[in-house]
Design a protein that fits this description.
mainly alpha; 70% helix; globular
Length: 281
């Protein structure tokens, strides 16, 4: 572009976002170092190390399975592709744990690293990204365990597993966009992380982790599932891994567009407001 050339107003946000993403890409070595640092801080030095990333989801899965199977007598829904309730539950809770952990840890990541921001010219936009990538490592470990579980119970893996990276990519875009928004807002409103905990509690129960659909007379509330991005991800995981069928591509496309919009909005918001961080921290 020639010096002094005018930029069409409609293109300005996209140019800003492009520069923002390009700046992040240029920091890939720093991002890798921060991801390693995050994982080491969480696991290295503890007696069981990375094994804790396996224990936590398995303990949560076991407790939920016990309560719902033994106390409430729950079974996997007839259309779930398996009659094994723990497998049904594991397939649904795995993407949720990645989403929940990333948002909760990202909400305070700017404040937690205030010393870096105040003392150096630091690319703060990479902090929520490093939290998400560290969470992705845990998610992939859990996913490997899930595959072993599926082979043990069902005995085969469907070719539709190739769609899982698409669902994961959409989830990552959505999660990172929200993480940028929440982490930057928490710098100015310190109650954000507490409010987020409450919201995630409601969000968890309105995501079809323990069920596939809202039955009977309560089916009128099914619109909640249709507009819940995590519901689409959970159902997509189950379609590909348990039902072994092609997921709803139209719904996937709609949620991909929504995730892209959240990613763009979160990135632009973070870029705009980050200039005020030093004055507040």
């Amino acid at each position: 572009m020639k010096a002094g050339a005018r930029i069409h107003p409609a293109l300005a946000p996209w140019i800003i976002l492009s520069n923002f993403v390009h700046k992040i890409w240029l920091q890939h070595d720093l991002i890798r170092n921060f991801v390693v640092r995050d994982l080491r801080a969480r696991y290295i030095g503890s007696f069981m190390g990375f094994f804790w990333s396996v224990i936590h989801p398995l303990v949560l899965l076991s407790s939920y399975a016990f309560v719902f199977m033994v106390i409430f007598g729950a079974t996997a829904p007839a259309d779930s592709g398996t009659n094994n309730f723990p497998l049904f539950l594991f397939c649904g809770i795995l993407p949720w744990l990645f989403f929940q952990d990333t948002l909760q840890r990202s909400s305070t990541v700017i404040i937690d690293n205030a010393n870096l921001i105040n003392k150096t010219v630091f690319p703060t936009e990479i902090l929520p990204l490093t939290v998400m990538l560290a969470g992705l490592v845990n998610h992939l470990i859990g996913f490997a365990i899930l595959l072993v579980f599926i082979l043990f119970v069902i005995g085969k893996i469907s070719v539709f597993i190739l769609m899982i990276p698409v669902y994961l990519a959409v989830l990552m875009l959505f999660t990172l966009g929200l993480s940028w928004f929440l982490s930057s807002l928490d710098v100015f409103i310190r109650d954000i992380s507490q409010v987020l905990t409450v919201i995630l509690t409601f969000w968890f129960w309105f995501t079809p982790i323990f069920y596939n659909k809202i039955p009977g007379k309560n089916a009128k509330y099914s619109f909640i599932l249709r507009w819940n991005p995590l519901a689409n991800t959970v159902m997509g995981y189950r379609d590909c891994l348990l039902r072994m069928r092609m997921p709803d591509l139209r719904l996937l496309g709609l949620h991909a567009l929504a995730a892209a919009a959240i990613f763009v909005a979160g990135g632009l918001f973070f870029r705009y407001i980050k200039r005020e961080f030093v004055d507040v921290l």
